[in-house]
């Protein structure tokens, strides 16, 4: 069974509204934040979230597309990876 948890990263030039816009998309898809870390270094914004979907009929592809669209609109890079894929890619 595939995990219903995701690692979401957001990186780009800091500006007003990044957190609000990204979390709005998450709320629209019923994706809940489990843990969050945010840092601004100089003018570079970074945010990493560990999140989970609440709905059984969650459409990961649609969520990724909407998050990518929102990232492009904001001028930041947004990546959404399933927890299993993330762990597999980053294992030592």
Automatic annotation (TrEMBL):
Coiled coil: none
UniProt protein name: UPF0237 protein D5R95_05925
CDD domains noted in UniProt: ACT_1ZPV
Superkingdom of the organism of origin: Archaea
HAMAP family: UPF0237 (MF_01054)
UniProt family annotation: Belongs to the UPF0237 family.
PROSITE patterns per record: ACT
Domain ACT span(s) in chain numbering: 7-81
């Amino acid at each position: 069974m595939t995990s219903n948890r995701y690692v979401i990263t957001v990186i780009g030039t800091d500006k007003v509204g990044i957190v609000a816009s990204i979390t709005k998309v998450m709320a629209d898809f019923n994706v809940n934040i489990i843990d969050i870390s945010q840092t601004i270094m100089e003018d570079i914004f970074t945010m990493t979230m560990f999140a989970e979907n609440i709905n059984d009929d969650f459409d990961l592809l649609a969520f990724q597309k909407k998050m990518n669209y929102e990232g492009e609109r904001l001028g930041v890079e947004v990546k959404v990876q399933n927890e299993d894929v993330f762990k597999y890619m980053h294992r030592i």
